[in-house]
Design a protein that fits this description.
The relative contact order is 0.10. The protein has twelve helices and 19 strands. It has about 350 residues and is α/β, with parallel strands linked by helices. It folds into two domains: about 110 residues, Flavin prenyltransferase-like (Rossmann fold, 3-Layer(aba) Sandwich); about 210 residues, 3-Layer(aba) Sandwich (Rossmann fold), CATH 3.40.50. The strands form six sheets. An eight-stranded mixed beta sheet has the order 10-9-6-11-14-15-17-18, with helices on both faces. The protein has a three-stranded parallel beta sheet with strand order 1-2-3, with helices on both faces. Bound molecules: cytidine-5'-triphosphate. The site of cytidine-5'-triphosphate (CTP) has 15 residues, from helix 10 and strand 14.
Length: about 350
């Protein structure tokens, strides 16, 4: 670490100064324990102690080591200090066990690095994002909902945060982990989502409405669990408020409002009508009938429709990349609206 007697160097500092990002892959339980507790007794931990730029940690170990509560606490500590911890993959492990603990694929690590080094072009902007399904209860144990996982909205929230925005996420029950670093407001029903979104709307520069809001709710909510005998053969439904349309009718010209539409046929014509009626600046059209698009998928195939009449078909890409494309267009629209 210290060079030769006649050629002294402080290698751990010059390493830390030279790099824009550090990646530790594989990161062992021992290394994670040292880093989380400030132990710097070798080249790696000492260089990282002097490193004040993004650090990506890829925990890789036996599944039982990974589940050890001490390791978990150390990872939480690192995350709360701003380290980027990648979730290990599940599968066959070098030790013969099967479970979580595999190092993420190099391509996934590369992606994370690229993301972290990306531009902070949304600095100073406040984003409001909605995600996930809503749940419309019938009684304490039953509800109506839909297949939305929340992946698309969460990807938008994460990418906006990485690009420097201040992000509020209003979501129904998510099937994916909640992103760290965003102001997350959890709701259940469309009516609750409406209230929370309206509270925040006036202080938002860009609003991305990726939530799959239930269009209907049961007419009555029964406080007690309904008995078979009480049911009959039909449930009366009433319309939920349309949050996007409400925002469209209230927005300022420089607020950028982005809606989503999931269609299975005649997609573009229907979406154009929706864009106009709901007064949105951009509509992200998912054709949910295609493989590689829509609910629960990690990828998406979307077409972006603009108020100007233009539209743009994007190739199949990850939801995070779709999020980046949406955010870049939103930023361009925002700049246009401001000039
Ligand atoms: N949306 C909303 N409030 C509702 C329903 C939908 O804010 N009560 C928003 C969604 O967040 C999304 C867009 O509107 O941005 C989705 O519209 P979609 O469900 O495709 O359209 P609908 O107008 O419900 O049309 P359809 O008649 O096709 O169901």
């Amino acid at each position: 670490m210290w060079g030769e007697r006649d050629r002294p160097s402080v290698e751990h500092i010059s390493l830390a100064d030279a790099a824009r990002i550090a990646v530790v892959a594989p990161a062992t339980a021992n290394f994670i324990g040292k880093l989380a507790n400030g132990i710097a007794d070798d080249m790696l931990t000492t260089a990282l102690m002097a490193f004040n730029k993004p650090v990506v940690i890829c925990p890789s170990m036996n599944v039982n080591m990974y589940r050890n509560p001490i390791l978990k606490a150390n990872l939480e500590r690192l995350v709360s200090c701003g380290y980027h911890v990648m979730i290990p993959e599940s599968g066959d492990l070098a030790c013969g066990w099967t479970g979580e603990g595999r190092m993420p694929e190099p391509e996934a690590i590369f992606h994370e690095v690229k993301r972290l080094l990306g531009p902070r072009d949304l600095d100073g902007l406040r984003l409001l994002v909605t995600a996930g399904p809503t749940e419309e209860p019938l009684d304490p144990v039953r509800f109506l909902t839909n297949r939305s996982s929340g992946k698309m909205g969460v990807a938008v929230a994460k990418r906006a945060l990485a690009r420097g925005a201040e992000v509020t996420l209003v979501s129904g029950p998510l099937k994916v982990p909640e992103p760290t670093g965003v102001n997350h407001i959890q709701v259940r029903t469309a009516a609750e989502m409406m209230d929370r979104v309206l509270e925040r709307f006036h202080e938002s520069d860009i609003v991305v409405k990726a939530a799959a809001v239930a269009d209907f709710r049961p007419e009555t909510f029964c406080e007690e669990k309904l008995k078979k005998e009480d049911f009959g053969t039909s449930i009366n439904l009433v319309r939920n408020p349309d949050i996007l349309a409400t925002l469209g009718s209230r927005k300022w010209p420089d607020q950028i409002l982005i809606g989503f539409a999931a269609e299975t046929s005649d997609a573009i014509q229907k979406a154009r009508v929706k864009l106009k009626n709901k007064n949105v600046d951009m509509l992200v059209l998912n054709d949910v009938s295609q493989p590689g698009a829509g609910f629960d998928c990690d990828t998406n195939i979307v077409r972006l429709l603009f108020r100007s009449g233009e539209d743009e078909q994007l190739a199949m890409m990850s939801k995070e990349d779709v999020a980046d494309q949406i955010l870049s267009r939103a930023l361009a629209l925002r700049r246009m609206a401001h000039h």
